[in-house]
Design goal:
By secondary structure, the chain is an alpha+beta fold. The protein contains five helices and eleven strands, in the order H-E-E-E-H-E-E-E-H-E-E-E-H-E-H-E.
Length: 226
């Protein structure tokens, strides 16, 4: 039996986050205002046709799988990237952030989207912040750094949306917020995980310093209509 993390989007969309799913036959995707990720149960022709119909109806999707998908009639590969799937089952000795931060709410949604659009930490949409809890740092009321939760699977929650405004980098905000988010996930009895581009050696070194280890490589494939 495969591990839930081997197919994180499928595990999330058919489990704890099924409420955020849009279905087309056997295929599932996050509702477009929440996220880009999608999955089908297998590579059978009928399942892939359902995935193609989902893209036709709701726009591009991203697959996070151990292997890239086979050619799918009606779809084209917009991009593909090798990623590290990293987990941090044990607490990091660094502890809590040494700066003030706060819980983010729906009232912060416009600033969260603006910061994510500016810094491009990964797919982030108008309702992405509703997938889990987010924390952030503000300067004079302006959101300058944040981190939170995205995909939630059996026994695991993804740390995501980690970003800092360019004018405030180098102050440890991202690392501190990530440690807090990860610690809170562990307090629920779950294991925090994240995805990072394999070529992003600087970020991966930081994540390893924060206690995240590469579990395995996965492939991010963005599909669009052909």
């Amino acid at each position: 039996m495969s591990h839930p993390l081997d197919r994180p989007a499928w595990s999330a969309l058919t489990g704890r986050q099924s409420v955020f799913a849009v279905a087309q036959g056997a295929a599932r995707r996050f509702s477009p205002e929440y996220g880009l990720f999608a999955a089908a149960p297998d590579d059978e022709a009928e399942s892939l046709a359902d995935l193609a119909a989902l893209v036709a109806a709701h726009g591009d999707v991203g697959l996070v799988e151990v292997e890239p998908p086979p050619p799918i009639p009606g779809l084209a590969v917009r991009s593909t990237a090798l990623c590290w799937q990293m987990v941090a089952p044990e607490p990091n000795a660094v502890g809590e952030p040494a700066f003030a931060f706060e819980e983010l709410t729906d009232a912060d949604a416009p600033q969260m989207l603006a910061l994510a659009t500016l810094t491009a930490p990964g797919p982030f949409f108008s309702h992405t912040h509703k997938l889990g809890r987010f924390v952030g740092v503000k300067q004079d009321g302006q959101l300058i750094a944040m981190a939170g939760e995205r995909m939630r699977l059996p026994g695991h929650t993804e740390v995501s949306g980690v970003c800092t405004h360019p004018d405030y980098r180098g102050r440890g905000y991202a690392a501190g917020l990530m440690l807090h988010v990860a610690a809170r996930i562990r307090e629920r009895g779950e294991i925090p995980f994240l995805h990072s581009y394999a070529h992003n050696t600087g970020a991966n070194a930081l994540y390893q310093a924060l206690g995240f280890d590469c579990r395995r490589e996965v492939v991010l494939t963005i599909l669009t209509r052909s």
